[in-house]
Hints:
Elements: H1 3-21, H2 26-41, H3 62-74, H4 78-86, H5 89-94, H6 102-112, H7 117-125, H8 137-150, E1 158-159, H9 160-175, E2 182-185, H10 187-190, E3 195-196, E4 199-204, H11 209-216, E5 221-227, E6 231-236, E7 241-247, H12 252-260, H13 263-275, E8 278-281, E9 284-287, E10 334-336, H14 340-346, H15 362-367, E11 382-386, H16 398-407, E12 412-418, H17 429-442, E13 449-457, H18 468-471, E14 476-480, H19 489-500, E15 507-508, H20 526-536, E16 539-543, H21 553-562, E17 566-569, H22 580-590, H23 604-618
Parallel strand pairs: 4-7, 11-12, 12-13, 13-14, 14-15, 15-16, 16-17
Antiparallel strand pairs: 1-3, 2-4, 5-6, 6-7, 8-9, 9-10
Helix pairs in contact: 1-2, 1-4, 7-8, 12-14, 19-20, 20-21
Amino acid sequence: MAWANEDLKAHFEEIAELMEISEEDRYRVRAYQRAAEAIGVAHADLSTLPRGELTSVKGIGDSMAAKIAQYLDEGRIDLLEELRTKVPAGVRELTRVPGLGPKTAMMIHHELGVDSVESLQRAIDGQQLRHLPGLGAKMEEKLRGTIERMGAKSDDRTPAADALPIAEELCAGLAELSQAHRVAYAGSLRRMSETVGDIDVLVAAADAAPVHAALRTSDLVRQVLAAGQRKTSVITARGLQADLRVVDPDAWGAAMVYFTGSKAHNIRIRERAVRRGLTLNEYGLFERPAEGRAEAEPGSERADAEPGEGRAAAEPGDDRPAEEADAGAATGAMVASRDEADVYAALDLAWIAPTLREDTGEVEAAADGALPRIVTEADLCGDLHAHSDWSGDGKEPLESLTTAVASRGWQYWAVSDHAIGLPMNGLDAAGFARRREALAALGDAAGVVVLDSVELNIAEDGKLDFDDDILAEFDWCVAAVHTLLDRDEAAQTERVLQAIMSPHVNAIGHLTGRKIGKRPGFDIDLEAVLQACEETGTALEINGSPRRLDLREEDIRRALDAGVMLTIDTDAHTLGDLDNARWGALHAQRAWVTPDRVLNCQPVETVRAFVADKRERQG
């Protein structure tokens, strides 16, 4: 999505949220929510459209177009600024707590002065909430449990999905410079952590000054925090800090290893270097002199610092100790530095994918030649969870989705529209029958098999939307919890287990219901779920939506250990959402998932056999 569209979508969502908190007319709130949705699925970069053509975007009328134009021309929306002055920032933070609606959040703020999750926690500890109208002790304890799952303190980290477009734009701009030999982002974003603290950008250039100057004067930058000869730190236009380091082209590989991290991974390979009489830092892998070392031993204060953090600066914007101003001055001969693979090879290691660099056994596996061939997006043969415009929240017709799937080289996709159990215009049995006729007319369009599928809602008692005779008509069924996410572990586990026992439920989607940065996943007895999945032949989904990435990384590892089959799905609601396959695959890599453990890395015949096997087991 173009940056302007992303910003506008976020601003219109904020307007709707602030209106809801202010208890404005719900139809007006919904109008801004619909406008945000329209911007989110718009194919055009709104910043490139003539202002008079903004209403050509489906779902954008004159009023919304005027606000879009104001933002594009002036960088602000008057209505948003007005609403921000009316609603305290702390109240908005409180509405991020699941189960705490806008009206209640405003009341708690007015009555108790609560303006953050931390102060809400203190109010709960002091039993202050139970005395407020409409709350009580039960609600107070419920909120306590929710905050414990969230973590009482916000860590100000940004979902990787929000950071990546910013990093890619920064890199694209710097790559246009004639001085830039190589440009890439590093750090936790390159490792594809779920959230990031900031963005690390590396540029290989012999002349650093023009590169730093280009970033400082970029339209993508709101504020310059520090500017030195080796490092520039800025706040981007979208509020995220970015740190630029310019390195010698010959040191590119070593710098990428160092600044990609993780801290624990770096310590492990530095230890390996020391044992071989070598020293490894961001400038290269060197022979180690008998006396004097250019870096601290592994485990020292400097070695323990996260890449780019925790070290005194020799100058503003330079995060290295002063004694390192002359890189390599106290080291021996260079062994390797130009490419990452060379650095790893000189340590007798296979190259290690960034997504594995968390000190979870990857160094030992690389030394033994035992690194797995982890799954990639290219391994996917199809998508087993995507939505069309046949149900309420899908945006695209079957034909365009099928064409898009074919363009990706996929062999099949499952059109998994919502059933009637959700209040989003889900389909009833008759609706699915009509859709089945449309699928028959579509045929194997563009050489793609379209599986007749449904996303079922798992009710509080574990029941599904349809009886077995109707479910038996589908090629593939994914079931998921969408409502009553605040139930306790026992209740959530039981409802999911009931769904797993159905002979027609082939996969459980987004198991914990989490949304990164917004909502923690609900508690569930994972061991019981894994055992049931393994015994019945039910898959667990890795939902590739970058806001979900559910299963969690640690849960994926446990699923692998339990022998449970996985799927990597996009949960697409728009054509752009098919890109979620990338996020799902990268997330799976962090758990060491291999293609043979992912059902939709197999041909469609294997998928059909998987379905038939469960029906035979459970039928």
